[in-house]
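Researcher: Going back to the complex we discussed earlier. I've cleaned up the inputs and rechecked each line, so this should be the final set. Can you rerun the prediction on the complete assembly and write out the structure?
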Amino acid sequence: MHNQPIADGSLVACPHCDLLQRLPDIAPGASARCPRCDKELWRRREDSLNRTFALTVAALVLYLIANTVPMLGLSAAGHQAFTTVVGGAQQLWHDGQQIVAVLVLFAAVISPALQIGLMLLIVIGCQRQRPPAWVGMLLRHLQFTRTWSMIEVMMIGVLVALTKIADYATVIPGVALFSLGGLIFLLAAMQSNFDPHEVWDRVQWAETEVQPPLTGNPMAEVTS
Amino acid sequence: MQEGLQSCEACGLLSRPAPGAHEGRCPRCDEELVFRKADSLQRTLAFLIAAAVCYVPANVLPVLTTITATGSESDTIMQGVVLLWSPTGWPLSLIVLFASIMIPSAKIVALGYLLITVRRGSIENNAQRIRMYRMVDLIGRWSMVDVFVDTFTVSLIQLQPLMSVEPGPGLFFFAAVVVLTMLAVESFDPRLIWDATSSKAIQQKVQYA
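Model: Rerun complete. Updated structure for the full complex:
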């Protein structure tokens, strides 16, 4: 059973304190904050979809590189060993820490992949004037992948591990290490250029009968 | 909530449940709507207790075991911090100290405080409490650092028979603390912090009228 939308579409409740308020129409780059708890309700982005699309494609390329080539190498006493991100999780699995291995795989490989994949599909779906309802379904789950995608945390972890190991052996940084470093910034830029509000404004509703018509919003134009 | 409206957690649309119905779905994005997250306080408390229980073995049991030709040596998280402390390595040592020891315990204490104040219907320090919630939400993921440190130490130092490193039982408990506290933050509904204030304001309005 779907709820009935309220007549005034600009009325919102703050997600952090539930204060009922009217969302003003703001200029690109500006943001609207809750007067009671200071939560940022909306930050409007300039040319959001095109920029997000470019950054997402770049992130995808770096992601693929980062997960196919060696990340770290080590040479000591004639031995040489290389590892990738997946290899790290594999070794943990091998040593009897299956649950932690799955967690590492999830936070460092699967979630970032979902984050990039969902974003790509959302942006592609939004090329239409009225994005189909599945765009909304994917967008609903984007926040989840953001919470659990921890490449930047992993990077600090790798640096600490390197410092520790540098005492015993020579460490060889691999191409994937630099790709991951770049990926951190691309993912952050991708997320901050993306404006979910703009997508929600245009998306096809689950309950089509009560959907308000598209307004003559200048944001709706993405092809230029 | 006082107006009988439901705000969608996923897309932010405000809508009104059908007459007689308590909860429905969002007409825009199809998300299930609730006035407040289901059993927020109980769930947060349950995750928090579980995290606090795991916190002890996470810090007492070794996370890494180093095996060399001459024998083996096990390190807990704190010993790892001490080992890392050197003229050049101290900034990283501090990062691990913060991420692995201070953040998890601060998270447990902060969420406990939020739970108690909400339960008591406190109407004070709302702004500070919501800031505390956001802080806990923001920095929580950084506790995972130690899990990654141990993962890559283990996977790189495999120089059998000279030297190899194996994960210890503490690693599982430590990872559990991180995940459980993240789940606790996720189940906490920050709007509960303001509910006591809102209902008090309404009571006063009713009295004046």
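Model: Worth noting: Chain B touches chain A through 72 residues (CB under 8 Å).
Researcher: Good, that matches what I expected from the previous run.
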